[in-house]
Design brief:
The complex is a heterodimer of chains A (443) and B (328). With 443 residues, chain A is of the alpha/beta class. Chain A has helices at residues 123-132, 145-148, 173-180, 182-196, 210-220, 240-248, 268-280, 310-316, 357-360, 373-377, 384-392, 396-401, 412-416, 423-442; strands at residues 23-25, 31-35, 45-46, 53-54, 59-62, 71-72, 77-86, 92-100, 159-163, 201-206, 226-231, 263-267, 286-292, 300-305, 324-329, 336-338, 351-356. The N and C termini of chain A lie far apart (48 Å). In chain B, α5 packs antiparallel against α15 (301-318).
Chain lengths: 443, 328
């Protein structure tokens, strides 16, 4: 029996159209827009101004606090302006516009493809390097990695969990990284283990990626400190709490962090970035992005410089299909619909999904028939139908008592509702309001 | 920048192919084997009653929604048709047309639309209609037609439960009544008198299997209800087999199967959590056995389901699902 998490979960059509497409380097764009807030926490502070010339890997915005991250230029060229533009959130955000000239890298960055396995750095040196390189969680949450590696007072990490689940339909970027860059990934994992001072790491991978499981098993060989854990395919297994439950059986208490059960979770893309930062002195300036969709001519996995407009990926994949009705940054379950193809790839962009028109429209909501499917599929054991009602009626105390803040916004409830009710929309509204009330109470 | 207008909406961006209509039509499909059997047993009368009940429920819903509530009629969602079939299944095949229409009016008008339509009714509409008919027209509602396949010189007969109750009330022991009751095997496939759709356990179970396969319902409520009837009646039987009949008899008679599989599982009126469904199912089982053995009516599952429907909001309020990372 394959391991998985116990409560809830759904199994949407996997549609991993680009699973067998090797990672290709996307040609350099003509210009990039690099937002200075690509992570959870304080925005970085821009260090460059109009007219400055920058190199690949040059620090262009400095971390704006403890929970923040450095931003580096992903291209060489001239800063056109520092200004507002839309990012995938749909809001105008501050960022650096750079016109690309050539491809000149900062000295000290090793751009070879040679594998550097050995390292003699200690925990603090690794954490400092990660901080310097501006690494954030590449699974999509974009939480600064260096913060995660320093457990808050008194808590101690017992194990590192590597998230190779990729439970979102369509997305294949982590899959390809595990297949093509396994050796580097494992060095990254060992670096993270050293940083955390743990001697055990588990890589959770859903068993719809048997080739990735095989490849990593082969590479790990006799190293007993890293274990591959094949998991049953179930969404949202890539959720931090669900992954910990699936792999270790431990349950993170309501309102607590994974570290409370001794676990630190990192995505495979993040581990690869850690390898490049520590072993090759390369900041986080590019990532693997899946471009896919049912009507897309060439679904692909591209290595993309941060700040590249989505349009470039679409062109490289054969152009925007005629029937496109929606463009999603991320997967179909948790990704964000974007308003234009000018929006840049950022550190958290795992994929771009082009949805055909008929699928991109919602159906009309009908009465709730209390079928309890939303309750059954909720991985947090909540009652989405009830949370929707209390949010609609603004009964915030009831929403809080019913654990609305535990919702991880995985969307399983809305996905599964036979009456097409936008359960998660209402729950998000409720969460926003209840969160505000709770913060006000603390002050 | 492309000129195309893109849709912007919050996640999730994909949706299951399940829908309310699909659920309703699958339940209707699951009822078809039992309907075919009742046509075999009662002839075209069964078709007449069913079609009339469905037509009445759908047109009453249409009329009320369009002319009284002035909303978009939703009759094609399958729920009114389903109520019609369930109402028909709960009456004798000889019921006069006007009574069926009256039952449909109460089921849809009072039982469903007065509360706000599909999803808002606290009680199972078909059972509201049936109980209204049973209380208003007790004679017609308990005159059971003799199957065309039984070679006796009579037009009406009593149900097995009715025979049992009458015998017990006349002071007979179970062993004295037993020769007058159909065999369990006959009752299993439905060679007995009774309401149109309740008689064939085997065909109702076939529908149950189909609904489980299509994941329309889960096994919990039917198993909890039937299990409770079996255990409770079994306990009574062990205590005094002269006064209380063995439990299998009770599972195969009086609409226990129809009620447990198709009426108690009505999503709108049953609890949301498995734990809640356990309480709900046990409640229905216990009340059914109590009414059948100690009450005035020979059968009691309709009343039991309606009573537990009334408790459903309370059950939902107090029995919560197991929270992830919670202490419960």
């Amino acid at each position: 029996m394959l391991k998985t998490f116990k409560l809830g979960g759904v199994h949407p059509a996997e549609n991993k159209l680009s699973a067998d497409k090797a990672i290709e380097k996307l040609p350099l764009p003509k210009s990039v827009f690099i937002p200075i807030a690509q992570h959870i926490g304080a925005p970085a502070q821009a260090l460059v101004k109009k007219g400055d010339s920058v190199k690949v890997g040059q620090l262009i915005a400095k971390s704006g606090g403890f929970v923040s991250a450095n931003i580096h230029s992903s291209v060489s060229g001239t800063v056109k302006k520092v200004d507002l533009a839309l990012d995938s959130s749909g809001y105008p955000k501050q960022g650096v516009f750079i016109d690309v000239v050539g491809d000149e890298w900062e000295t000290g960055i090793n751009t070879s493809s040679q594998l550097f396995e050995k390292f003699e750095v200690d925990s603090q040196a690794i954490i400092d390097k990660i901080n310097e390189a501006g690494i954030v969680g590449l699974g999509g949450a974009t939480f600064p990695t260096h913060v995660k590696l320093v457990p808050p007072g008194g808590m101690k990490a017992e194990m590192l969990l590597i998230n190779g689940v990729e439970c979102e339909p369509y997305l294949t970027s982590d899959h390809r990284v595990m297949l093509e860059r396994g050796a580097e990934l494992l060095v990254g994992i060992r670096l993270l283990m050293t940083a955390l001072k743990v001697n055990k790491a588990y890589i959770g991978i859903e068993n719809n990626k048997p080739d990735a499981i095989e490849n990593l098993k082969k590479l790990i060989a006799s190293d007993s400190s890293i274990a591959i854990v094949p998991l049953k395919v179930k969404y949202p297994q890539g959720g931090e709490k669900q992954l910990i439950k699936a792999v270790t059986g431990r349950e993170v208490p309501s309102g607590a962090l994974p570290i409370s059960v001794g676990a630190v979770v990192s995505n495979v893309g993040t581990a690869l970035a850690v390898y490049e930062a520590v072993q090759k002195n390369k900041p986080l300036i590019e990532r693997v992005v899946t471009i896919t969709g049912k009507s897309v001519e060439k679904p692909s996995n591209f290595l993309v410089r941060i700040g590249t407009p989505v349009q470039e990926l679409i062109d490289a994949a054969g152009g925007l299909p005629e029937d496109t009705g929606k463009i999603i940054s991320g997967g179909p379950m948790m990704g964000k619909a974007i308003a234009s193809t000018d929006i840049p790839v950022t550190k958290g962009t795992s994929g771009i999904l082009l949805m055909p028109e008929p699928e991109s429209k919602r159906k009309k909501m009908k009465n709730c028939i209390r079928c309890s499917r939303c309750v059954t599929v909720c991985p947090m054991g909540l009652e989405p139908y009830y949370l929707m009602t209390v949010s609609d009626k603004q009964l915030w105390e009831k929403a809080e008592a019913s654990k609305i803040m535990d919702c991880i916004e995985c969307g399983s409830c809305s996905y599964t509702c036979p009456a097409d009710r936008p359960l998660l929309d209402y729950i998000r509204l409720g969460k926003g309001k209840v969160g505000k009330i709770m913060r006000a109470r603390k002050q | 920048m492309n000129q195309k207008l893109l849709t912007i909406s919050p996640s999730p961006h994909v949706h299951t192919s399940e829908s309310v209509n699909k659920i309703m039509y699958r339940v209707i499909l699951a009822l078809m084997p039992a309907l075919v059997w009742s046509v075999f047993m009662f002839g075209w009368e069964a078709i007449r009653v069913t079609l009339l009940a469905v037509a009445a429920c759908m047109s009453i819903e249409f009329a009320i929604q369009k002319y009284l509530l002035k909303t978009e009629p939703q009759i094609m969602d399958g729920s009114a048709a389903l109520t019609g079939i369930l109402l028909a299944f709960n009456v004798p095949a000889t019921l006069p047309a006007w009574m069926i229409i009256a039952g449909a009016l109460v089921a849809i008008g009072v039982g469903k639309l007065s509360f706000g339509g599909l999803g808002n009714n606290p009680f199972n509409p078909a059972l509201v209609g049936r109980v209204f008919l049973l209380i208003s027209f007790p004679v017609n509602m308990t005159s059971w037609p003799v199957s065309q396949h039984v070679n006796v010189d009579a037009l009406t007969t009593a149900t097995p439960l009715g025979l049992l109750k009458e015998g017990i009330q006349n002071g007979q022991s179970v062993s004295e009544i037993l020769p007058h009751l159909p065999h369990n095997m006959d009752m299993l496939y439905g060679n007995m008198s009774g309401s149109l759709g309740e008689i064939s356990a085997i065909f109702l179970l076939l529908g149950f299997a189909y609904m489980l396969w299509k994941k329309v319902i889960t096994w919990h409520i039917p198993v909890f209800v039937l299990g409770t009837i079996f255990v409770f009646q079994g306990a009574l039987w062990v205590i005094n087999p002269d006064k209380y009949i063995e439990p299998i008899f009770h599972l195969l008679t009086g609409g226990a199967m129809l009620g447990a599989i198709f009426m108690a599982t009505d999503m709108v009126t049953s609890p949301m959590t498995v734990k809640g469904q356990l309480v709900f199912g046990i409640g229905i089982g216990v009340i059914t056995v109590l009414i059948r053995n100690f009450g005035a009516y020979p059968e009691g599952i309709s009343f039991a389901i309606l009573i537990m429907n009334g408790f459903t909001p309370l059950i939902n309020a107090y029995i919560k699902p197991k929270r992830f990372g919670g202490s419960n």
